[in-house]
Amino acid sequence: MKYILLIYGDESRWETMPAEDKQRAYEAHGAYAEALQSAGAMRGGYELKPISTATTLRFTDGRPATLDGPFAETKEQLGGYYVIEVENLEQALDWAAKMPGMDSGSVEVRPLGMGE
Amino acid sequence: MWLTRIVEDVVRNDGARVLAGLIRLAGDFETAEDALQESYARALVAWPRDGIPDKPAAWLNTVSRRIVLDRLRREKRSTELPEDLAIPPEELFEDESGIEDDRLRLLFTCCHPALSPEARRGLALRTLGGLSTREIARAFVEPEATTAQRLVRAKRKIREARIPYEVPSHEKLPERVATVLSVLYLIFNEGYASTDAPSLLRPDLVVEAIRLARLTLELLPNEVEAKGLLALMLLTDSRRVARMSTDGEMVSLEEQDRGLWNRTLIDEGVRLIDEVLALRNPGPYQIQAAIAALHAQATTPAETDWRQIAALYETLLRWTPTPIVELNAAVALGMATSPDRALEWIARIEQSDALSRYHLLPASKADLLRRLGRWEEAAACYREAIALATNPAERRYLEKRLATGETPHPR
Predict the structure, then answer these.
(1) ipTM at complex level
(2) Contact yes or no for A89 and B166 at CB 8 A
(3) With contacts defined as CB-CB under 8 Å, which chain A residues touch B112?
(4) What is the pTM of this model?
(5) Strands A106-111 and A2-9, sheet pairing
(6) What pLDDT digit, counting tens, does each position of B256-308 carry?
């Protein structure tokens, strides 16, 4: 079963972080991805650039209008994701619990639709 | 008629056990429930023709498992069928040993933190307690449609997010156990004071809750609250027979024939609570069990150690500071000292307005006023309580009290 782990956090915290802390965070994610890899669970994942870079197409009656910014302004922003493949939700939650750099924020775990 | 009765009996006594195994086999609640329903329908056709099987529950188990397997094969899920299919289903069904009980697995699935607390309780009552949606809706005081929708959503989430059907790993058990214990206590209480049929006990639910509490304790022998809960259940259940008169009327603790109390259950309950209290790691179930033990050990109402019970209620109040516990604490204090002090405390509870619709508040006041010989005020409180009581057996009990009039009460 494939799950997506959506990482939400306060983006401003990340942006004001000292360079060496950021470096440590990247290393932690590198190790996390490697652990996923060696468990055979890694199916992809990326860091997202800040929401200030987001563009949204809003559709009205089938016609798109281009807007600056994310779909919704929230306190916590989607900052990255992993796609993993494991047996069940329990195992997905175990991986989510080990997400690096989560002093605060949240990880949403959603099963992926398989076109069933 | 007799046939329907037999099927109903089997469903009531063994339905949850069969269902738990079917869910494991199907990996899906709906498929399991459909198959069980289908097997009842087949029984109604086959049994009059072939005679009632020696073991009706085993028959239903075998037939419903075949229905599940046929369906899985049709859906071409046969490649991932569980490995235990080589074992004849009857044998599997007879095996009651070991901790990996299907119903225990089901309990942990129903109590998974990925489900909302309301969904967990509803699902456990539905699948383990075998309660209907209507009964659950009554227990939760909500519209039946709300309950039904919540159950559908929960089952869907279990299936689509693939919440596993297993007892969690050992390091996760402690964080899961609180929910499991609260759900078990809920099933027990539903059996002890059935919401749907208020005068009627549901011994099947009581027995099942106690059985699952034993399994949980076996799984977590060091979990003090699991032991406390089992003790509480046994001590409460020891009064089951005495609690109802032969004509189905409620009998208050004070008026119960203590000779009818089940000594075996009391002995085991008292032994468990003594063991666990010695560890000095108290919790709400242990405290409630200790209170029940003190009642159980009093051979007459007058011998009840109310001082200690009042002290225990004060401790319980620190763990669970709810107005209902506070009301019990007040009554216990009144019994330990004087009814006046209880009435003063209850007056303070009344100011908060939290229990303004709770019939046991005026009922408790009425009882205390009666003990003080203030009959006029007591009668007014009984009337108030009768107006608020929704449970027919309790209402009848209060009406009887009111009708007994000024009969002096032994203290």
Answers:
(1) 0.86
(2) no
(3) 89
(4) 0.78
(5) antiparallel
(6) 999 999 999 999 999 999 999 999 999 999 999 999 999 999 999 999 999 99
